[in-house]
Amino acid sequence: MRAQRGCVGSPAAPHGAREAALHTPPQREAPWALVLAGGDGRRLEGLTRLIAGVPIPKQYCRILGDQSLLEATLARTAPLIPVERTLVVVNRDHLALALPQLRRLPRQNVLVQPHNRDTGPGIVFALLHLAARCPQATVVLLPSDHYVGDEAALRAHVERAAHLVDHLPSKIALLGIRPSHAEPGLGYVEPGRPIVSPRDRPPVAYSVKTFHEKPSAECAERLLQRGALWNSFIMVFRVRQLLALVRDRRRAEITAQESVSYDRVPRWNFSGDFLSRIPRHLAVLPVDDMRWSDWGTPEAVERTFLTLGLELPWRRRPARGRGWSAGPRIVAVGE
């Protein structure tokens, strides 16, 4: 995914070069990464308190290894996208935690929301910024609270998604994880017909029949039986295309975001209030080799540790007759 050209205009090519260009594929615009780190992480507050000594947002916590979830996200995408093209959305209230972990990024690439208004306004906030800087940008959107066991596999799937968007720029390419169990706390994407992009070895994706955000346990079981995939929330798309879709379907909210103070912007969820309503604009790429987990709950974190055969480092066995208690304090910020 090497950069082929920048966001600024290039000098006009000689006549011969222009003629040759008619017979060659268009050069890819260097992609941008957009990392979401603006959440409050309240569902993991109890766990982060045990690990860090204070309840901090999970993306800044070193839950596994010596990197926070945010630092690990940036490290796994660095081979694909340079820091100059990596944007991170954070909240003003978290700057003391965020800035030490974002020292390698240009300061203008740290996008500071005044408040957390859920994922919809947070993503639009970042995309409006990027559209002003690079209106032709292709975006790789990445949450910062995931566990990924095979980082090379993730990068390969992102490459596949980017190639798909090269050839089908109207699509939002979404990585769909093959489920290991029925999980009501996640979103589900039900694949439709195959989509093949025109390459020598084309990546295969699927249209999306339905998109279900956090279904009931019974519905999750039925979706599992029908071959539905977990919504990883890892996406590749053209910034102009996505903003056009948001304007078309969430016009009131985006107008408010552009014209009123941020704390008055209505809250809305990007998956439940937007993606679930535009299935025909989505393409899903099935993924089953990343060893992925959305660390949205303590149970999901513990499930990953048990799968890896690891002890839970924030716990220790207490004296007989008492329950679990917190282990030694672990430093959680980039000190």
Notes on the structure:
- The chain has 335 residues and is an alpha/beta fold.
- Helices cover 30% and strands 22% of the residues.
- It contains ten helices and 13 strands.
- It has a five-stranded mixed beta barrel.
- A hairpin with an 8-residue loop joins strand 12 and strand 13.
- It starts with 14 loop residues before the first helix and ends in a 9-residue tail after the last strand.
- The relative contact order is 0.17.
- The C terminus is likely disordered.
Strand order of the largest sheet: 6-9-7-8-10
The parts where pLDDT drops under 50 for at least 5 residues are 8-25, 317-335
Overall pLDDT level:
85
Structural class: alpha/beta
Question: Which terms summarize this structure?
Answer:
13 strands, two-stranded antiparallel sheet, 335 residues, 30% helix, alpha/beta, 10 helices, 5-stranded mixed barrel
List the helices and strands and how they pair.
Blueprint (H helix, E strand, L loop, with lengths): L14 H7 L10 E5 L8 H8 L16 H9 L8 E6 L3 H7 L8 E4 L5 H15 L4 E6 L2 E3 L2 H17 L4 E6 L9 E10 L7 E10 L3 H9 L3 E10 H11 L1 H9 L22 E6 L4 E3 L3 H10 L7 E2 L8 E2 L9
Parallel strand pairs: 1-2, 1-4, 2-3, 6-10
Antiparallel strand pairs: 4-9, 5-11, 6-9, 7-8, 7-9, 8-10, 12-13
Helix pairs in contact: 5-8, 8-9
